[in-house]
Write a structure and sequence with these properties.
Low-confidence stretches: 19-23
Oligomer: single chain
Strand content: under 5%
Number of helices: 11
Helix content: over 70%
Mean pLDDT: 89
Structural class: mainly alpha
Shape: elongated
């Protein structure tokens, strides 16, 4: 509820004080739509997302909202539209991959993370999530290799360090895991 309030306030403020086109990477209406959708307010969510316009992340958020509402078929169409809108950008592939991961469709999730990585080779997120897919399948050594690759780009990401530690723990490498757990604890970046 607080997120919805915050985004509604931001959207109203921006309407009062118009800014130069392009100052925002993603229109606040897209974030508002996501917050509304994840709180179950579907008609308002879709209206806000429509106001957001033709942005990759707006279409990806629509996929997240439709998936959250239980409409996986529509969500996949939304992710596909996001990819079609900007096929050279990694974000839509990553969002789609995360949804596939939530649905335990591991091979398709890996395919999307591979595509995201190909389009953003120095972006750690697709690599980290690829590692999560491998860990979910019990392929902990392969997951560790992906986490190490991702760490080259964002070594201070606490969520990455946490997942890396968990994979090491599963392999019985407790001392190594502890190092990663301590890095995760010291980090403020636990968004994964």
């Amino acid at each position: 509820a607080q997120a919805v309030n915050d985004f509604q306030t931001t959207e109203a403020m921006l309407a009062k004080y118009p800014t130069e086109e392009g100052n925002f990477t993603i229109p606040p209406a897209c974030y508002l739509g996501l917050a509304l959708g994840l709180s179950g307010q579907m008609p308002a969510a879709h209206a806000a997302l429509a106001r957001g316009g033709d942005y990759v992340d707006c279409y990806s958020f629509k996929g997240d909202v439709d998936d959250h509402a239980g409409d996986w078929s529509q969500a996949q169409k939304d992710y596909e539209q996001a990819v079609e809108l900007a096929p050279s950008l990694p974000q839509a592939y990553q969002s789609w991959g995360l949804a596939l991961l939530r649905h335990h469709d591991y091979q398709d999730a890996i395919d999307k993370f591979k595509q995201a990585n190909a389009r953003g080779p120095h972006w750690c997120d697709p690599l980290e999530y690829w590692g999560e897919v491998l860990a979910a399948q019990g392929k902990y050594q392969l997951a560790i290799e992906k986490y190490a690759e991702a760490s080259r780009y964002t070594p201070g990401w606490g969520g990455l360090q946490l997942h890396w530690g968990e994979a090491l723990d599963k392999l019985g490498r407790h001392a190594d895991a502890l190092t990663h757990y301590q890095s995760a604890k010291a980090s403020q970046e636990l968004s994964a």
